[in-house]
Amino acid sequence: MDWLYELRVVDGPVAVACWVLGIAGLAFLAALVLVPRPRARGAILAVASAAFAVAATLVLHWLIVDVLSIFPEDLPPEVLFWSGVGILGVVLGLVGIIRLGAARRAWGRRAAAVVSVVAAVLLSAQQVNAYFGLNLTIADLAGVSVNRIQPMSQALERAGAASVPLADWRAPADLPDNGELRKVHLPNAASGFSARDAYVYMPPAYFAVPRPELPVLVLMAGQPGNPSDWLSGGRLRATMDRLAAKHGGVAPVAVVVDPIGTPSNNTLCMDTKLGKVETYLTQDVVPWIKEHLTVAKDPTHWAAGGFSFGGTCAVQLLAQHPELFSSALGFGAEKEPALAKERRKTIDTAFDGDEAAFEAQVPAHFFAEGGHEGQFLFLAAGRRDPDFMAQADVIAKQARGGGAEVHEEFVPGEAHSWEMIAKAIPVGLDMLATRWRLP
Hints:
Blueprint lengths: L1 H4 L7 H22 L4 H29 L9 H24 L6 H26 L5 H5 L1 H4 L2 E2 L11 E3 L14 E5 L13 E5 L8 E3 L2 E5 L8 H4 L3 H11 L6 E5 L13 E2 L2 E2 H16 L9 E6 L1 H12 L6 E5 L11 H9 L3 H5 L3 H6 L7 E7 L3 H16 L3 E7 L6 H19 L3
Parallel strand pairs: 1-3, 2-5, 6-7, 6-10, 10-11, 11-12, 12-13
Antiparallel strand pairs: 3-4, 4-7, 8-9
Helix pairs in contact: 2-4, 2-5, 3-4, 4-5
């Protein structure tokens, strides 16, 4: 079964099959509506179906973004288009089946219509997934890769082996070629925040005796999202293994944590009535990492990173907690945390309308206070994503005003997706490696 799990779904044979079946299915559904007599009625129904699909897509987008605030930003046009293709397939299928009527001889065409609807929806889903670059293989879709990750063992904790400062460590000849992933449920005694399992990447150097006290990279996914998104779309293990290969087996210990609790729960990465997430990250997560993993405790060797919501959260941690983090990687970060497009809705929902309380927690406030000399902020966005490029510029100006060093990386041909991160993160990691003086 491994060969099946390793098949890519964003390109290659699976993607081609989705295209062929989807186009064939849509063509069959269109014919099912157009061909039966009277033809004029079929043409009217086909045009009406297309118009209804467009309207339904726009209404659904309005509900998701403006009413339910599942996303704080408008969805990309490409995502809307492919969502509309799936809706069109469903509408054409329903209209076509109705046109066939109840005749027994039409059962084969009715079954073909159902299969064609599935094919159209499958193409829609495949294209949306390819846009975001989240699930790259069938194993990612099925959750197989994540399910195979073993829990953290005591032997891998800080007390499990002797350690030395990274500057004093020398690589032995028998280092493994690759790092390893483990999962762990982090405690929440200080915050009470209910988070999902975290994932820990340990580079090859972590398995030496003695171990070097390694830098730390705390990562967060987007919202909606899961910590495991960094393992699938973020290709965490392969990315970090490549970095380690360039530095004699040394790379940061990367800990993917959960600041949202459930896929659709936007906590703003703050302490509000939505949850004490800032407390969770700074008083639960950070102390656990320092106590249980063989890592450097000096904040100069600590970085936060994330995508979208997680990128915004990384910027917040850098701005508000220089005593914990000296660097941050913000991929597709927002200029400030948001529950909705309307700033007022965020303030009313999370802060009971207290605008001053909200503004006292945003990065702009902390950067304006200054004192961020020696900090480093890496911001990345896709060049097909002008909104997030503009927001990166705003964040960069604020951070530079506070004294931080800032690098902006705009990736050609990419938008708000994990593929953008795949192309930008090597640049950010190389800059961190230089700051951390990795061998």
